[in-house]
Amino acid sequence: MGRIQRKGKAGAAKAYVTRSSAVKKLQVSLADFRRLCILKGIFPREPRNKKKANKGSSVPTSFYYTKDIAFLAHEPVLKKLREHKAFAKKLSRALGRGEWTDAKHLEENKPVYRLDHIIKERYPTFVDALRDIDDALCMIFLFASLPSGDRIPPSLTENCSRLAAEWQLYVMHSKCLRKSFLSIKGVYYQAEVMDQTVTWLVPYQFTQNMPSDVDVRVMLTFLELYQTMLGFVFFKLYTDVGLVYPPPLDLKKDEGGAGVGAYSLQDAAKQPVASTKPKTKEVEVNGHKVSSKDVRQAIKSVASAADADVDMSSAEPLAPTADDDDEEFVPHPSTKDASTAAALPTLKSISALPPSISTTLFAPYTFYLSRETSRPIFEFLIRSFGGRVGWPATSGSGSPVEEDDDSITHVIIDRPLVKKANETQEDRERRARRKYVQPQWVVDCINAGRILLEDSYAQGAVLPPHLSPFGEYYEGAYDPTLPIGTQQAQQAKKLYEKVKHSQRKREAEKTKLEQRKRDLVKQKKQQGKTKGATS
Q1: What strands lie across the sheet with 177-182, from one edge to the other?
Q2: Domain map of the chain by residue range?
Q3: β-pairing verdict for 388-390 and 63-65
Q4: What is the dihedral of CA 252, 389, 377, 189, to 10 degrees?
Q5: Rounded to 5 degrees, what are φ and ψ at 262?
Q6: How far is it, in rounded angstroms, from Cα 424 to Cα 421?
């Protein structure tokens, strides 16, 4: 007979622990406990029997695995949080007493924790981090567009803007953008990085207001983790393509509103490498200075002289052994067809294949953005597919193309068509050489993988439906890309088939009802005949 188990010492009561018990065990505040759980990826669990897990109590509460809480107890960040709590007490005491020197010394030596070890724990491989980059990019681009204030420091907004620009620079350099969609929430992008699909959302550049009912502390904790993770990921991505990370920033261009153009990509191979040669050390021997280089040369000369003393002429060549005869190479003819073997792809043939046409979709064209279009969005889209783009000075500095450049093939414009009364002959000729299209044309061309006709997207024209490239369309569903006449014909055909089907169904039910009536009449006649025969 086994030992009797005490209540609450085994089963669900031992496997789970409530949030209040976890906070009491770790001796931290509720805010610090939430921060630790977010950083370590620990979340509440749902036991099968809450009453057993709560040791007989039915009070609603959150449960965590006991092993997860024990895992948190050995976290280095927890030690730093406790040190920061003691630091805050010492600083407030020094400020209250007017000890400004001690307060300054405490502020200079305040405890700071790092999240590098947490990133390595949560993402053991680079692919794991790349799969989880979607939420990080969405959060980075969101905080880059928010105004700084009391709840969001300016340094945080600046760092998010820098990370967002670094990601856009990599996507434009590697030509890995695949899809885009202009939605109400913002602009959706999808890229393919190292065979991993990355989708993120970028809000429109309007004046954003932080709602008062949003808990920014939770979002800032996630952002703190995402910033560290993106630093690791971007360093790996830039290093693999041979670029310097972080890309240097030109402060003059940044002050002029150059945006992504303020950063410059530099080849890592062209950067000067620090010399790794050991320094020669000089010592004085018998009044003469002798360096370590002289010592190494003397050692080499002594070793070469010792090798020369060996009489190599007396050495006889080694005779081949029996094992060497047995291991003689015997050619075997291949059983495979030579033509089939020659058709197999090799690494050289794969590397020699031309790149996909979609990555250089806009390479033959030069675009000019009108002042009412969003420059950051369409500059990123056009440059990601190999196109050249320019913009007016009101949209920022650093435009590589001027408005009167003869190489401009397309003008992205989003205003109604108005004829100018004082238009010169040169302006008319320039307008005739260029294609004036609305911004949706750029996104639809990217999603279609080819250059669409500009007539449907001309200035002032009614645009076709902007379809999401992320949706799945099945046969028989509504297709806005078809002409109106074809849609009406398909709808009329479906309606006709539906009416015909309902008519056939009603006729079948009517025939079935009549047959049942005839069967009942026949059955009653048979019953009457049997009664007359028995009587």
Answers
A1: 177-182, 187-193, 196-202
A2: 12-108, 116-267, 358-457, 487-521
A3: unpaired
A4: -120
A5: -75, -15
A6: 9
Place of tokens 């006889």: 316
Tens of pLDDT, residue by residue, the chain (535 residues): 567 777 767 777 788 888 899 999 998 899 999 999 999 998 888 888 888 787 777 778 888 888 989 988 888 888 888 888 899 999 999 999 888 988 888 888 888 888 889 999 999 999 999 999 999 999 999 999 998 888 889 999 999 999 999 999 999 999 999 999 999 999 999 999 998 999 999 999 888 888 888 888 899 999 999 999 999 999 999 999 999 998 998 888 888 888 888 888 888 777 765 544 545 555 555 555 656 666 666 666 655 554 444 444 444 444 444 444 444 545 555 454 544 444 555 544 444 444 444 788 899 999 999 999 999 999 999 999 999 999 988 888 888 888 888 889 999 998 887 777 777 887 788 888 889 999 999 999 999 889 989 888 998 888 888 888 887 766 656 666 666 566 667 777 888 888 888 888 899 998 988 888 888 888 888 887 777 777 6
CATH 3.40.50.10190 fits domain 358-457: yes
Burial class of residue 172 (count of CB atoms within 10 Å of its CB; 0-12, 13-18, 19+): buried
The two tokens of residue 494 are 């479906």
Rounded CA gap, 104 and 418, in Å? 65
What CA–CA distance (Å, rounded) separates 482 from 485?
8
Cβ–Cβ contacts within 10 Å for residue 315, how many? Answer: 8
